[in-house]
Amino acid sequence: MKLFGKKQTSVPVLTAFAAIAKLEKGTTSLADVIAPSSVEVDFNYIRVGDFFYKTFFVIGYPRFVSSNWLSPLIDFDHSMNISMFCYPTASSDVLSDIRRKIAEMEATISSQAEEGKIVDAKVQAALEDALSLQEQLAKGVERFFQFSLYIALFSETLADLEDESKKLTATLSSILLITKTTTLQMEDGFKSTIPIGVDKLYITRNMDTTSLASTFPFTSATLTQDKGIMYGINEQNGSLIIFDRYSLENANEVVLGKSGAGKSYLIKLEALRQFMFGTEVIIIDPEGEYEALARTMGGEYVSFTPSEPVKINPFDLSGLYEEGENELGLKILSLHGLLGIVIGKLDAGEDAILDRALVETYRQKGVTVDPATQKKQPPLMEDLYKVLLGMEDQTAKNLALRLEKFIKGSLSGIFNQQSNFDITNPFTVFSIKALEEELRPIAMHIILDFVWTRVRKSLKKRLLILDEAWYIMKYEDSASFVYGIAKRARKYYLALTTATQDVQDFLSTDYGKAVLSNSSIQMLLKQSPTEIDLITKTFYLSEGEKELLLSSDVGEGLFFAGQSHVVMKVIAAPFEHNIITSNPQELAKQQEQILAETAPQDSPPIDSMDAVEKNPPVPPPNQNLPDVNATSPQTPPPVLNKP
Ligand SMILES: Nc1ncnc2c1ncn2[C@@H]1O[C@H](COP(=O)(O)OP(=O)(O)OP(=O)(O)O)[C@@H](O)[C@H]1O
Ligand SMILES: [Mg+2]
C-alpha cells in the first residue's frame, strides 16, 4: 500500500519537470540574448560573432621599471581587452626556493673562480637580485606574487587584426615586453581576457610587491561622459573630454591662468556649445570681448554707459517669497556690499547708520519685510541720499556727500533710475567696458545682483559667466556676494563660471577659496612663475603637473572635474575660432574681409579711363584686398602636440 502510494506521487513530479524543461526550451534566456551567433576557433584567432580576437601573453619583462611603465600598452589606440592576474604566494615557500637558488648560483661562481675563469656577470647580477629579494622577504618589507598579463586584440576584419597585432608587438617590445600569441589556445586566451576572472593560460612571472604596484594601469584618466559638451582633447591619450557639468554636485567652474593663457577663449567656446544644447547664457563682460559672439548667436549685447537707454536699479527686489528667507534683509546685505565699493570702506558706526538709512529708504516707499509690500516700486539711490541727508547726524551727512557723485555727478545716469530692462534673450551679454576702470566693480556687482534676482524668478538651465572676476573679488563684500551665488546656484539650475588672471588675489581671500571649493570644475591654464607655488599648494599638484602649467601653450592646461583631472588642450572648429578669437591680427583680417566684401564694385566710366591709367587709384587702407601671401583668415584649428 505504501509502495503504491509512493509510485502515485512520483509520477506528477516527473511530468512537472518534463513540462518545465519543455517550457524553458521555448523561452529565451539571458544567455540566448547575449551569446554570439557563432564561434569559430582557428589556430591563430578566434571569431566570436562579428569580431576576430587574437590573444597575446607576456613572457619577458624588463629588469627595471618605473611607475606608469605600462602606459604605452594602456593607451594603445585600438580596441582590446587586457587582463592581469596576481596570485599571492606564501613567503615561506618562496624563501626556501630562493635559498636553494642562491646556493646554486654561489656554487657556480665559486667553481668558475676555482677554475680560474672570469665570473659570469649575469650570474653575479642574478645572485645580487636574489640576495636583496631574500632580505626583503625575510624582513616582511615585500611580499611575493605570481603575475600574468594577457592582451586580446579584436577587430572586425582579419587583415586589420594582423596589422594591429604587429603594431602592438612593436609597441610592447619598445618597453622591453616580449609577447607571444596563444597559438592553438585561442579559446583559452579569449576566455582569460573576458571579465570573468578565469585564468585558463596560467603563464606567470614572479613579482615582488613594488614591481606589481608599478603595473597598476589606471594612470591616464579619461573624462568622457555620454552626454555634455566637448571641452577639449585629453593630451595624454588623445581621447575627447566630454563632460556635463550639470551632472556634478554643483555646476560651478573656476578658470585660472595668466593673461593670454586662453581663459576667455575657453569660456566663450563653452558658452557657445552650452548654448547649442539649450542652456541660457548670461555673461558679464568687463573687457568688451564677447560682442562678436553675442551678435553671431543672435544674442543681446547690453552696454552700460550713462548715455545708453538701458538702466538697472540696484534697489530692485525679486518679489519672490521663499520659506525661511528674508528677501529684504538679503537685499540690504547686498546693497551694503555695493555701497562698500561705491563710497569706500565703512567703519562700524557708518555701517550701522547706513543700515538704518537703507531700512528707512525702503520703508518710505512702503516696502517692509512683509513679502506683500515687496511688489511695490522700489526706491532709487537718490532716495537713500535724501534719507541720509535728513538724518541729522554728521556721519550720515558725510556718507551722503560720498554718495553724491553717483546721484548728481557724471555717473548719475546709470544706476539712479528705475530698471527698464529684463533678460529676455537666451544669450545676453552685459558689457561694462565703456565704464571707467574704477566703476567696473560697481557695475559688476549691480549686474550680478540683477541677474541673480532674475535667475531666481524662473527655473531654467542657465550659465552665468563672470570673466575677469578679480575686478570684484578684491572687494570683500562683493566677493562674499559671489560666494553666496556659488553656494546657492545649484538650487536654481545655475552654473557659475568665474575666470581670473589674478590667482594670488583670488586665492588669498577666504571668499575666493570658498568659491573655488564650491566649484566642481576647475581649469588651470598656463601659470606665471610667481603664482605657481600657490597653485601647487592649493591643488596638490605633482612636480610634473607644476612644470606642465609653467610651460604649457595657449589653451593648454589641467582640467579638474570632481576627483579626476586630465591634461587638456582646448580645440575649436575653424568657424568657432573665427567667432571667439580675440587675436587682434585675426580680428583686423576679418574686418578687412568684411569691408572688401561690402565695398562697392563699380567700374569707372569709359571717358575717365585715361585719368585712371595715369593716376591709378590707391585703395583706402581698410579696403585693401586680402594679402594672398598672408595666412588665411580661416585659421586652421591648432595642431595637436600629440606624440
Ligand atoms: N585654444 C586656443 N586655440 C587657439 N587660439 C587660442 C586658444 N586659446 C586662446 N587662443 C588665443 O590666444 C589669445 C589669448 O586668449 P584669451 O583672450 O582667451 O586669453 P585670456 O587668458 O582670457 O587673457 P586675459 O586674462 O588677458 O583676458 C587670443 O588671441 C585667443 O584667440
Ligand atoms: Mg580674458
Report on this model:
By secondary structure, the chain is an alpha/beta fold. It contains 25 helices and 18 strands. An eleven-stranded mixed sheet has the order 9-8-18-17-16-10-15-14-11-13-12. A hairpin with a 2-residue loop joins β2 and β3. It is elongated, with a radius of gyration of 36 Å. The site of magnesium ion has 3 residues, from α9.
How would you briefly describe this protein structure?
This protein has 25 helices and 18 strands. With 643 residues, it is an alpha/beta fold.
Feature tags:
643 residues, alpha/beta, Rossmann fold, Helicase, Ruva Protein, domain 3, 3 domains, eleven-stranded mixed β-sheet, seven-stranded antiparallel β-sheet, 25 helices, disordered N terminus, disordered C terminus, binds adenosine-5'-triphosphate, binds magnesium ion
Please write out the topology.
Elements: H1 2-25, H2 30-34, E1 39-41, E2 46-48, E3 51-60, H3 71-74, E4 80-89, H4 91-114, H5 121-139, E5 144-155, H6 158-174, E6 178-181, H7 186-193, E7 205-208, H8 209-213, E8 229-234, E9 240-243, E10 253-256, H9 263-276, E11 280-285, H10 291-296, E12 300-303, H11 327-342, H12 348-364, H13 381-389, H14 394-403, H15 412-415, E13 427-431, H16 440-457, E14 462-466, H17 470-473, H18 476-488, E15 494-500, H19 503-508, H20 510-517, E16 521-524, H21 529-539, H22 543-551, E17 556-561, E18 564-569, H23 574-580, H24 584-598, H25 609-614
Parallel strand pairs: 10-15, 10-16, 11-13, 11-14, 12-13, 14-15
Antiparallel strand pairs: 1-2, 2-3, 3-5, 3-6, 4-5, 5-7, 8-9, 8-18, 16-17, 17-18
Adenosine-5'-triphosphate is lined by residues 257, 259-265, 501, 554-555, 570, 581-583, 638.
